[in-house]
Specification:
133 residues; four-stranded antiparallel sheet; extended
Length: 133
Amino acid sequence: MAINLYKTSTPSTRNGTVDSQVKSNPRNNLIYGHHHCGKGRNARGIITAGHRGGGHKRLYRKIDFRRNEKDIYGRIVTIEYDPNRNAYICLIHYRDGEKRYILHPRGAIIGDTIVSGTEVPIKMGNALPLSAV
């Protein structure tokens, strides 16, 4: 992965790095609005917890935790930051045309192929049932 180092222009940008491989343009059919109710207010809308509220609007990404596309190879297209879970996620394009988000496997880069099933090799990013490990 290529990491860009920038020259310091303000104290807040000191020791900062940006990963150039991470992209942040989420798929429209894999995200939906997440209603953050409350923000420190009760049922009447009166502030009861003064230190809560504000924050940036976040959209929720549908993550495929089941990985039930069996024996269909998929390619990592983008690596994005997910603001709802303090983690990176990958957009996977499967060969049958389906697109899904998964949690980013450590060490996976854009262009890697992953697969899930019972007879797949034990490799970073592949998903196997516990009976096959």
